[in-house]
Write a structure and sequence with these properties.
This protein has twelve helices and no strands. With 223 residues, it is an all-alpha fold. The protein folds into three domains: 58 residues, Orthogonal Bundle (Arc Repressor Mutant, subunit A); 54 residues; 88 residues, no CATH class. The radius of gyration is 20 Å and the shape is globular. It starts with a helix and ends in a 19-residue tail after the last helix.
Amino acid sequence: MTKAQSEKKKFNGTRWTPAEQRRLMELRDDEKVSFEVIATKLSRKVNAVERRYEKLKEEQSLPSDFIWNTERDNQITTGRQKGTTIRELALAMNIPPGVVQDRVTVLRKEGKMPADAAGKGKGKQAEWTDEDDEVLLRMYIAMADEAEIHKTAGLVRKTLSSIKHRRQLHLRGESMSPNASQMYRKLLMEFSDPRKRWSKQDIIDRKFVMGSWKDMAAPVEKP
């Protein structure tokens, strides 16, 4: 057996069955078992167990008669076109942010999200919206490490490993390298101005203007 086959056998990458989901909830809610132990029992990765548990808890919080309909879908697509964040939509619709994020993903896969809707993207990167990236980078610039960002920043369904990977994609080397993302470089310039500097708590409380960095001039690159 190859190493890849061994890893595949060790960690079950298949869809969650109803029985597995019931067992997950029993172990976590009734027996108070840690995610690490649950992952071993279910042959799943810890991150996968945490994400599934969060998803199930959010679904449980929905009204019993809740269904997705044209009106709710239009509220999402129209809101995203206007730049409304996932959190803002969730508050307006009185449902958890993760549920809204899941619906955005479904609508995008079905081709129902307009091309100019916020957070557009392809493949796995589509899971990260513009506001997710901005929150991540503002927290990082304010000296928060990935673990703190994962715990406090309110990034919907983002694992610690995905946060680390996303940060690395934006930085791509030294902070002011020409290869660094425009968002990161402009936010870094904004933070260097004492009048515009923010704290980690400001970002956690969303006390900033989302997308303000777009109006800044591009950093001057040294020859």
